[in-house]
Amino acid sequence: xxxxxxxxxxxxxxxxxxxxxxxxxxxxxxxxxxxxxxxxxxxxxxxxxxxxxxxxxxxxxxxxxxxxxxxxxxxxxxxxxxxxxxxxxxxxxxxxxxxxxxxxxxxxxxxxxxxxxxxxxxxxxxxxxxxxxxxxxxxxxxxxxxxxxxxxxxxxxxxxxxxxxxxxxxxxxxxxxxxxxxxxxxxxxxxxxxxxxxxxxxxxxxxxxxxxxxxxxxxxxxxxxxxxxxxxxxxxxxxxxxxxx
Length: 245
Prior knowledge:
10 strands, 25% strand
């Protein structure tokens, strides 16, 4: 077991390349997330931001470089093994279990903690307080929910995992402005509670409001990085992602 320096990032992605067959998707991507920090990965379609997140989650494996979680390598692990080490995921497209009820979907998030029954019940009530719509629909099949309600469910399921790190992929995709606001209201509360978050997002404006730091990817390369406030003021980011003239 590696000794963890107190200054070691909670998550370190170090100079990774990723290929899909003969096609290279990431080129020497590096980023880090400190404990209690929210870091956003921004970029357009095919920029490599979702591939970066999938690499952290063990859904794809780098052909070069390394990924460390609390100082220990995870880049060769399967996705279940990564999750077992305390990583929770809110995947793109929600991926709820459509035939199962809202309540059953939430319990799936808590499955690794299934022996902590009292704590799970407390956390379920916390989720229902955050998302009253889920409380109203707790017996309803998840597949009958709207897209925004399914995103709430995916977030609640990840929260019940009580992960040390939550990886969130495109939480605003396909949602109305009202639901985007509801989702980010919860993410701001998570941040205030000290939750460590790695966020992939196309909506750069709201992502930079939430994040402490951010990385901008283009064609599989990190082209910009820095504090969220600094990047929000960067002319390149403003022009490409914030709609500035």
